[in-house]
Every structure is written in C-alpha cells, then in structure tokens.
Design a protein that fits this description.
The protein has 114 residues and is an alpha+beta fold. The protein contains 2 helices and 5 strands; from the N terminus they run H-E-E-E-H-E-E. Bound molecules: guanosine-5'-monophosphate and zinc ion.
C-alpha cells in the first residue's frame, strides 16, 4: 500500500487531536479548519475514495454519517446546523486519498458550495 497520511494518523505515526475513536472509525481536528468546528471522520479501513467503496462497506459508510451526527450533538452544532462533506477525487477537492467525511459547523454556510 502506498503511504497514506490518514493511515499514519490511525497508527499514531502522525500526531492529530483525536476527539473520537471506536472499532470502525476515528475523528480528529482538521489541521486547516474551514469553520469554527471542522472535524475529519475516517474509517479504520483504508478505502481510497467513495468510488472504491462496495456494498460490503454499506454499514461502515452509514456509521461515518451517524458518527458525524453524534459529534455534531456533542459539539453543540446539531440544532444550528452543520455540513457533512465527502470530496471524491481531485476535481471535487480531495487531497487525501483515504475516504473521509468532513464535519463542519459553527458558522453560516452558503449553497451551492464553491
Ligand atoms: P480533502 O481535501 O481530501 O477532502 O480533505 C483532507 C483534509 O485533511 C483537509 O481539510 C486538510 O486540511 C486535512 N489535513 C491535511 N493534512 C492533515 C494533517 O496532517 N493533519 C490533520 N489533522 N488534517 C490534515
Ligand atoms: Zn489510508
């Protein structure tokens, strides 16, 4: 497997402020936050992009979304509103090729996104 930054965060080779961890996923602060709250939620399983997920990953993908909702409540952004984003491939802005969702909150968001 090629070097993967998020696998290195999972193995603690690269430090991160991990705010959540379970058997399937972890969440940590984004190093370059785009909102007052900006967390990255990743599966422990290395899946490069959403395109690479299969039916076998259905529960895992659901778990990432439910984790985002749980964290949003803990961070007190659930009622005001938050955004959950997956950038798939370079044209959508993906820069780390280990599937992840961004949880963003604490400010007003516009639509459509840039
Ligand atoms: P993407 O652009 O692939 O959707 O999201 C990758 C995210 O990872 C970006 O928001 C970027 O700021 C974040 N990121 C990149 N390198 C690091 C790092 O070393 N540590 C942490 N905590 N986040 C990172
Ligand atoms: Zn990885």
């Amino acid at each position: 497997m090629t070097a993967c930054l998020f696998c290195d965060i999972l193995s603690k080779k690269v430090p991160a402020n991990i705010i959540y961890s379970d058997d399937l996923a972890i969440a940590f602060d984004d190093i370059n936050p785009q909102a007052p709250q900006h967390k990255i939620i990743i599966p422990r399983k290395h899946i490069p992009t959403l395109n690479d997920a299969t039916a076998e990953d259905s529960a895992l993908l659901g778990h990432l979304l439910l984790t985002a909702a749980t964290l949003a409540k803990q961070l007190n952004i659930a009622d005001t509103g938050y955004r959950v984003v997956n950038n798939c491939n370079a044209g959508a802005g993906q820069t780390v090729f280990h599937l992840h969702v961004h949880l963003l909150g604490g400010r007003q968001f516009i639509w459509p996104p840039g």
